[in-house]
Amino acid sequence: MKLATLKDSTRDGQLIVVSRDMTRFTHAGEVARTLQAALDDWGEAAPKLARLAERLEAGSGQSERFDQRRVHSPLPRAYQWADGSAYVNHVELVRRARNAEMPSAFWTDPLMYQGGSDCFLAPRDPILAGDEKYGIDMEGEVAVIVDDVPMGATAEQAGNAIRLVMLVNDVSLRGLIPDELAKGFGFFQSKPSSAFSPVAATTDELGEAWRDGKIHLPPLVSLNGIPFGRANAGVDMTFNFGQLIAHAAKTRALTAGSIIGSGTVSNKRGSGPGKPITEGGDGYSCIAEIRMIETIERGGPRTPYLHFGDTVRIEMNDEHGASIFGAIEQTVQRYSGDERQ
Amino acid sequence: MKLATLKDSTRDGQLIVVSRDMTRFTHAGEVARTLQAALDDWGEAAPKLARLAERLEAGSGQSERFDQRRVHSPLPRAYQWADGSAYVNHVELVRRARNAEMPSAFWTDPLMYQGGSDCFLAPRDPILAGDEKYGIDMEGEVAVIVDDVPMGATAEQAGNAIRLVMLVNDVSLRGLIPDELAKGFGFFQSKPSSAFSPVAATTDELGEAWRDGKIHLPPLVSLNGIPFGRANAGVDMTFNFGQLIAHAAKTRALTAGSIIGSGTVSNKRGSGPGKPITEGGDGYSCIAEIRMIETIERGGPRTPYLHFGDTVRIEMNDEHGASIFGAIEQTVQRYSGDERQ
Questions:
Q1: Residue A254 DSSP class
Q2: B133-160: string of b/e by CB count within 10 Å (b at 16+)?
Q3: Any idea where the Fumarylacetoacetase-like C-terminal domain is (chains A, B) (predicted)?
Q4: From the CA of A159, how many Å to the nearest CA of chain B?
């Protein structure tokens, strides 16, 4: 089934069930007022939501037209957003671009950072930034929402706790990253609010594309309407979601509704880095990656980061070309402070 | 007023108002079911909670005996836990102990890490850890809970968004920190769940001790019943809470209920590091600090990290010796996995 969160006057919105083709929805308030409430008691809620989804597919019961512009991120705010960096290829490129060697442990011990989860952007919200000099970048990723995970869970147990799958735009301020990471405490100001896809889907909605704890489909990343990346999320993913979740749960339990991300999807091409789509490659899920390749191959970056007015779109299609999660589509805008409430 | 969260069968517990002397409480469900719900609509909720507090102090209306063992951390789970490191003295010592110079920017640009907030420990919960070799340590800190803070808020605006104050035990696994920080993405496994004081108080409860965005009182940190630290939270705090919150809000808004921590409270002694309480000093709010001083002064650490069975207590008294927030009191226990539900 597919779930989403309709905007209303509350902070957490209203849980709705969306039809597979994303044309219709039905309110799910009789089961749970919010997606977090459903996740808090998933064993009770999931079968009831599944029945609502069945009725919706059958065309019985009340439904309304679904509009992706009317929804929040599935969890407008969450208790946890932990983002892995499972495409180690991408990490190796980052290092090569600055002539640093990547520790070999990176192939066996996942990189993961604790992200801010108190205030996500809606999938069609603008990306507000104070200055283009921050080096505004998108990151096309996949993410899962988990049920409760006990401390010390194995990768297999952790994989079994996956309840929903989504896409993410993990907005990054590249210009702020070097100084921030040099301080040693990880990202903070360099990772502003992320946006998630309009719809979160159970793994069975992905059919054969969901296997081995990975989604074997490409997030389609476009910039100003031009395809920028279509790297396959199931390729070169060194750690699957079960492994990423188990990493997060090594020394503490994870609460239901925690979101675990894959990191920027990135594919190698043979033994080398990927190529732009315009050159017949699969492109990139973020601008930083093409800039790293330009640095390695041409002595310096050529592609600029996002400008005010640029529009980023991230979606994912099934084998029939139908959108699975709806589209994240965000325009970068200057933040002047007048937007403050 | 003083607020707390009574444990019940729900994940978020029940909001209660606690008497100033912490002997009585009254249910606040008529105002808001949970503390987060009150924070979501603080302008509406706060005056009503204040009236309940007044009635409780006057001895009118129903009340029950308050037992610190029956409460969660004020927010059993939160949308954000961002911990600063405002006692730069402490940071400088960490660096000196490993012969590294501290960048001078650390005196002007706050260090802050994004912590896990999905699953806090109750103030009397055990600290569960898989292995003593993790280097289990307490960190006695103060923290504030804020209202909504817009992106780009000034330190003054940010300071005005402070709604409640608490104590924290920011449990740290020192043995896991070096490898984790070397990976470059900050803390994750090395920062398991934190615990907060039984009670969160509005700043007016602190009287004169709350000024300049700081609490001018010492968190009293004890280990196995023996005083370990009484460094004053108002001394050597390079960044006040307004500045820490503004740092957190530089590139994104903060949602009501976000918790911002001070970092381990640490006082210098003249131009040098503090001394143990047994030597007439104010001691330390974490074991790592005395180990660093031992390393600098005696060539290596002498004080061990926490053992299974050790008990940490953190509280704070007013000028009359009365506890303000109640006591965090936690015993370290081996986690075998049998605790999994």
A1: B
A2: ebbbbbbbbbbbbbbbbbbbbebebbbe
A3: 81-332
A4: 16
Q: Are A296 and A279 in contact (CB under 8 A)?
A: no
Using the beta-carbon criterion (under 8 Å), do B185 and A113 form an inter-chain contact?
yes
How many other C-beta atoms lie within 10 A of the C-beta of residue B58?
Answer: 8
Q: What is the pLDDT of residues B258-306, one digit of tens each?
A: 999 999 999 988 777 888 999 999 999 999 999 998 988 899 999 999 9
The Cα–Cα gap between A333 and A308 comes to 5
CB A90 within 8 A of CB A266: yes
Q: Where in chain A is the domain with CATH 3.90.850.10?
A: 75-334
Question: Does residue A271 surpass a pLDDT of 90?
Answer: no
**Among A200, A153, A192, CA closest to A176:** A192
Quote the CA–CA distance of A116 and A12 in Å, as a whole number.
Answer: 16
Put simply, the chain A residues between 250 and 309 with a CB less than 8 A from any chain B CB are 250-255, 257-258
Bridge partners of residue B164, in order along the sequence: B145
Quick check: A134 and B251 CB within 8 A? yes
pLDDT at res. A341: 43
Partner A contacted by B197 (CB < 8 A): no
Please report which confidence band the pLDDT of residue B139 belongs to, taking 50, 70 and 90 as the band edges.
very high
For residue range B176-205, list pLDDT tens digits in order. Answer: 999 999 888 999 999 999 999 999 999 999
> Could you give the angle at which helices B287-298 and B88-97 cross, rounded to 10 degrees?
50
Q: Three-state DSSP class for B331?
A: strand
Name the burial class of residue B263, with classes exposed (0-12), middle (13-18) and buried (19+) by CB atoms within 10 angstroms of its CB.
buried
Place of tokens 């009359």: B320
Q: What distance in Å separates the CA atoms of residue A177 and residue A187, rounded to the nearest whole number?
A: 7
- Evaluate whether ipTM surpasses 0.90: yes
Query: What is the average per-residue pLDDT within A5-16?
Result: 98
Measured CA to CA, the distance from residue A192 to residue A23 in angstroms comes to: 31
Average pLDDT, chain A: 95
Q: Which of A77, A173, A252 sits opposite B192 (nearest CB)?
A: A252
- What is the rounded average pLDDT of the residues B78-85? 98
Contact B86, B261 (CB under 8 A): no
Substitution target in B42, B95, B151, B336 with the highest count of A β-carbons within 10 Å is B151
> CATH homologous superfamily of domain B75-334?
Fumarylacetoacetase-like, C-terminal domain (3.90.850.10)
pLDDT band at B338 (very low <50, low <70, confident <90, very high): low
Tens of pLDDT, residue by residue over A83-114, are: 999 999 878 877 777 778 888 889 999 999 99
> Mind giving me the DSSP string for A58-87?
HT-S--EE--GGGB--SSSS-S-EEEE---
**Number of helices and strands (H, E) in chain A?**
7, 20
At B44, list the tokens: 């509406």
Strands A195-196 and A162-169: antiparallel
Residues of chain A positioned with their CB less than 8 A from the CB of B78: 79
The residue among B188, B193, B244 with the most chain A CBs within 10 A of its CB, best to mutate, is B188
